[in-house]
Amino acid sequence: MFDLNLIGIGTGNPDHLTYQGAQAIRAADLILIPRKGENKADLAGLREDIIAQVTDTAPVIAYFDIPKRRADDGYLRGVDEWHDTIALRWQEAISAHPDAQNVALLIWGDPSLYDSSLRIAARLAPQPNVRVVPGITALQALTAAHAIPINDLGAPYVVTTGRRIRDEGWPDAASKVAVMLDGECSFQSLEMADYDIWWGAYVGMKEEILIKGPLSDVAQEILDTRANARSDHGWIMDVYLLNKRTKRSTGPTGL
Predict the structure, then answer these.
(1) Does the CA dihedral 190-177-232-64 come out positive or negative?
(2) Residue 138 and residue 154: Cα distance in Å, rounded?
(3) If I label 249, which of 37, 111, 197, 200 is the partner at 20 to 30 A Cα–Cα?
């Protein structure tokens, strides 16, 4: 039985790596790095840079290709089958190095927040000893970049996906909503005059882009900026926080 370390590495800035994360990378004798196609080759490169910065003797690196996810048989079923296939890719990469006892994956953000590495790890056979090293999340990086709190005083906030905003609308009882995994800019489905937004792409990286303001004023700017950035880089990672205005407020602190 081997150890599997899922190491949160933050949102692209090597300075976001925790000391605990650096120690876990140095202790690994095999690190798995995903490849997502030529357009996203710099994501693998960033992982390689982080490894190089914190190790004197580089560990063995095994690359595996991320399969495409099916979208023709329902979202949840497609994701479930996708995870099965990724687990097989992990298994193949690990099996090719039978002497490795301390295996690691560098996880963008944090392994516990809208990341499926723990679910994929549960599919491995035999089951490894899984250890999670927490990392800075996209939400922490976003609120830090905009210098705002994520919640209103004594009020709840909701973390959700663009798909659920599009299909279900604004969550009940939430004053703020953090939206992840939104490739369609689903804030367009809301009554935009009622909301403020703090949006960020490549947050924490040198390419960082930040936009904030009343949603009705900046929505088109976000759409255009996002499209241009995706075209320039071949990929984009973005996240945003929405605030629902009340009749007594003209906008929250931070705008």
Answers:
(1) negative
(2) 22
(3) 200
Q: Write down the pLDDT at residue 19.
A: 96
| Closest CA relative to residue 234, chosen from 23, 75, 39 | 39
Q: Same domain for 144 and 115?
A: no
Q: Answer whether 0.85 is exceeded by the pTM.
A: yes
> Residue 220 domain-assigned?
yes
Quick one: tokens of 173?
């009882």
Instruction: List residues bridging with 161 in a β-sheet.
Output: 180
Whether residue 128 sits in one domain with residue 17: yes
CA–CA dist 100, 32 (Å, integer): 11
Q: Examine residue 132 and state whether it is found in any structural domain, yes or no.
A: yes
Q: What is the pLDDT of residue 68?
A: 85
Q: How much is the average pLDDT of 86-96?
A: 96
Task: Tell me, yes or no, whether 131 and 67 share the same domain.
Answer: yes
Is position 250 within any domain? no
CATH number at residue 40: 3.40.1010.10
Q: Give the pLDDT confidence of 179-201 residue by residue, as tens digits.
A: 999 999 999 999 999 999 999 99
Quick one: average pLDDT of 164-192?
Answer: 94
Same domain, 17 and 46: yes
Spell out where 2-111 has E strands: 3-8, 30-35, 60-65, 102-107
Domain range for residue 213? 139-244
Residue pLDDT, tens place only, 105-129:
999 999 999 999 999 999 999 999 9
Distances (CA, A) of 28 to 76, 94, 135, 171, 193: 33, 13, 17, 42, 50
The pLDDT tens digits for 146-161 are 999 999 988 899 999 9
101 and 175 co-located in one domain: no
